[in-house]
Design goal:
With 296 residues, this protein is mainly beta. It has helices at 2-17, 60-64, 290-294; strands at residues 41-46, 74-75, 82-92, 100-103, 114-119, 133-135, 146-154, 163-167, 172-175, 200-207, 213-214, 222-223, 238-240, 245-246, 257-265, 280-281, 283-286. Strands 1-3-15-5-6-14 form a six-stranded antiparallel sheet. Strands 9-8-7-10 form a four-stranded antiparallel sheet, with no helix packed on it. It has a three-stranded antiparallel sheet with strand order 13-4-17, with no helix packed on it. The radius of gyration is 25 Å and the shape is globular.
Length: 296
């Protein structure tokens, strides 16, 4: 009975829609979906200790300010601090062209270069769980560059004490604190999966030479930009070519495109009263969509 009633009702509706007194209502044209040129989601933020960590520039909230624009700002802390971001589309690897631009806050004589990593969503699950490939910049394989490097940071006894570190080469040092300028804890406030406060953690990645830093005049410390291929490096933004991605052996890989990007402070540098060298990020954009986005 329900089936017959349903068919009868549909017949009435059909006749009504085709009556002479009314014209069929045209179906609305679908609104074209334009992907955002900017990164659309924060996936992970793991800062290293630093003078802006645990301040308005060094929290998850700060990391979220870089989503959907180029006017946010987040500090990654000392060497190894990182942020992982995702696009709402695949950034296509265009032949012989730069594909991504990263915005930071470098000055003419003060850059804080960060290494860039990219990932293609090979398994198609929307998660950043495939292989990270380093984007080889101008300093790749030059003197002072080191792959498979790691640093362990340890929480100091007091919040304003220097933060000890030990690297994979057996070298030790501290992230020097300056309580007269920044009196909060430099060591990130983090908890493990059981809710316990983390007091020591290890970061892995690649390291750039600190030869770009000049502390000859303590009151006029400079940090020279590298030629190309790094974040927070050049004044007008840093253009990245996906074609420069390399695998663990240092060989170039042919990626059709990428869905995720990681930016990581690349230099372990102490710049006196200016503190540690720490990469900052204010936004990330797909170059191929910049003009499209501007017409929306």
């Amino acid at each position: 009975m329900k089936t017959k009633y349903y068919l009868a009702f549909m017949g009435i509706a059909t006749l009504a829609s085709c009556s002479k007194d009314s014209d069929p209502t045209p179906e609305p044209e679908p609104t074209p979906i334009v992907a955002s040129s900017f990164v659309s989601k924060l996936i992970d933020y793991q800062p290293a200790p630093g003078q802006f960590i645990n301040t308005d520039l060094g929290t998850v909230s700060a990391a979220n300010t870089v989503i959907g624009k180029k006017t946010g700002l987040v500090s990654l802390g000392a060497w190894g601090g990182s942020i992982v971001l995702g696009f709402d589309h695949t950034v296509i690897n265009q032949a012989d062209k730069d594909d991504i631009i990263i915005y930071g806050n470098p000055l003419p004589t003060f850059a804080e270069p960060g290494i860039v990593w990219v990932m293609q969503d090979t398994n198609g699950n929307g998660l950043a769980d495939d292989i990270w490939y380093e984007v080889a910049g101008s300093e790749f394989n030059k003197t002072g560059y080191q792959r498979n490097y790691s640093v362990t940071y340890t929480k100091p006894a007091a919040a304003t004490d220097p933060v000890p570190w030990k690297d994979s080469d057996g070298k030790t040092g501290v992230i020097q604190t300056h309580p007269q300028f920044h009196d909060q804890a430099y060591f990130p406030v983090m908890k493990d999966k059981d809710g316990k406060t983390i007091t020591e953690y290890t970061i892995k990645g690649s390291k750039l030479s600190a030869s770009n830093i000049d502390t000859t005049i303590p009151s006029m410390v400079t940090s020279k930009a590298f030629d190309w291929g790094y974040a927070d490096n050049l004044m007008d933004g840093d253009k990245i070519d996906i074609a420069n991605a390399v695998d663990q052996a240092g060989n170039k890989v042919a990626l059709k495109g990428i869905n995720f990007i990681k930016i990581q402070t690349g230099v372990m540098g102490n710049m006196g009263l200016l503190g540690e060298l720490s990469t900052e990020v204010s936004g990330v954009e797909d170059i191929s969509l910049i003009k499209v986005a501007s017409t929306k």
